Recover the amino acids of this structure.
């Protein structure tokens, strides 16, 4: 196995893209508010390298509010078909506006308009009002590029801990933990 957790993640992620029938890039994102109350939801991994793991969202959503108050998070990839998990924990920082703009430009036009139409995580009066707002944006941006909304950001989880878990018979699972100390990674095994 690789001694670098990022290389090992890339190896496992490549296998998941081949084996997992639906959305291998889906990860559970856990955040907590300023008082420490936790919240979790599924988001999509949109990039990863030695700097961390990137996802995008409305910065005014519940997760955006929580990350502003408590800029730490945990991620969980569960690839059931491979009987593997990867857990990641660390501080979170926004990606640069240029990086967010570049990613936003790759999204489908409908998704771009949806980012403008949705007051994510806020109460909605009715589905009809949301769809009317979306249709108004279709008209407003007809024939023009859709810019990234000023409240729509990318976030990078900068890992301090990465755990690789493999399901084994009789609950004798394999757990391999990497912990970052400065710029170096140490590794060890955990009891299941």
């Amino acid at each position: 196995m690789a001694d670098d957790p990022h290389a090992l993640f890339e190896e496992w992620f490549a296998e998941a893209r081949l084996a997992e029938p639906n959305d291998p890039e889906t990860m559970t994102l856990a955040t907590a508010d300023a008082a420490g109350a936790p919240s979790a939801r599924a988001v999509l991994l949109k990039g990863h390298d030695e700097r961390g793991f990137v996802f995008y969202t409305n910065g005014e959503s519940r997760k955006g509010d929580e990350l502003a108050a408590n800029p730490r998070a945990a991620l969980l990839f569960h690839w059931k078909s491979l009987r593997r998990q990867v857990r990641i924990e660390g501080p979170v920082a926004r990606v640069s506006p240029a990086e967010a703009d570049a990613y936003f430009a790759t999204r489908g036009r409908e998704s771009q308009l949806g980012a403008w139409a949705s007051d994510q995580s806020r109460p909605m009066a009715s589905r009809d009002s949301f769809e009317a707002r979306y249709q108004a944006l279709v008209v407003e941006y007809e024939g023009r590029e859709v810019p990234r909304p000023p409240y729509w950001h990318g976030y990078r989880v900068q890992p301090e801990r990465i755990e690789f878990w493999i399901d084994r018979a009789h609950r004798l699972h394999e757990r391999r933990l990497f912990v970052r100390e400065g710029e170096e990674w140490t590794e060890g095994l955990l009891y299941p």
